[in-house]
Structure formats: C-alpha cells, structure tokens
Amino acid sequence: MLLLLSALSAQADNGVTVTVNVRGAANDTGTVMCQVFRSADGFPTDDPKATAYAASLIHGGAATCTFTAQGPGRIAIAAYHDENANTRLETNLLGMPAEGYGFSNGAKAGYFGPPAWEDAAVAVGGSPVTLSLELTK
C-alpha cells in the first residue's frame, strides 16, 4: 500500500503547472470556475468528466485558475463566470449561457453549441504552460 501511494505521489509530481489567465468578467461578483478536459468526452458541459477543477476570485474583471500535475498530452479548458455562486453556468429559456463563458485556444461557441474539443485543445509538455482565456456572453 505504501509503495502504491509513493508511486501515485511521484506520478503527480511529474506533471506540470497550467495557469489560465481569465479576462472579461462582467463584474467582480462571484468566481470564475475553470475545468480541464483531457478528451472530447463530455467537453465542456459534463462536469463529472472534467479531470481537474479550479475556482478563482475576480479582481478588475480578471481571475487566474491554476492546475498542477497536468500533462503531458492535450487538454482543453472551459471557464465561466459564476456570478451567483451556484457552481453552474446559468442559461436562459433557450439554453443560451446567461453568464460569461470561454474556452482555451480562443475557441468560440457556434450557433448550435459549444466548440469542439479539438478547437479548444492545447498541448502540454514538460514545461509550465500559461494560457489566456477571454469570457464572452
């Protein structure tokens, strides 16, 4: 058992830090919620399929989410401005987001839903990665 825990700890230490600078929050109320998806499965709406989560307070319309032990491989980030602190993206009667949202790699939602994982995916190697993400409504 101890050997297994040591192996898991060493594996986690081998990952790199991914920092996501999020801009464009409508105000400083609530938090910015960020999720990492390592595959298209569930991206970006199936929360349990995200492999990592982070929340950050907002200052001047900006926030920073940090994830450790990521990579190597490709990941996609989904973020939203949780203005009312209910830990979910609010939508209107038509299912359109009512709170700011955004995706890594500058991926944009289309008329009929979110972008494809492939459009939002970025490579994570052996060095720390810093990404910028712009929220939109």
The low-confidence runs, each spanning 5 or more residues with pLDDT under 50, are: 1-12
Give the oligomer, counting copies of the same chain as homo and different chains as hetero.
Answer: single chain
Determine the N-to-C terminus distance: 48 Å
Average pLDDT for all residues: 89
The biggest beta sheet reads:
5 strands, antiparallel
Radius of gyration from CA coordinates: 15 Å
Helices and strands: which structural class? mainly beta
At the fourth CATH level, what is the homologous superfamily? Immunoglobulins
CATH architecture: Sandwich
Summed up, the helix count is 2
So what's the CATH class? Mainly Beta
Tell me about this structure.
This protein is mostly beta strands and 137 residues long. The protein has one domain: Sandwich (Immunoglobulin-like), CATH 2.60.40.10. It is built from two helices and eight strands, in the order αββββββαββ. The strands form two sheets. Strands 2, 3, 5, 6 and 7 form a five-stranded antiparallel beta sheet that branches. Strands 4-1-8 form a three-stranded mixed beta sheet. The longest helix has 12 residues, at 2-13. The relative contact order is 0.26.
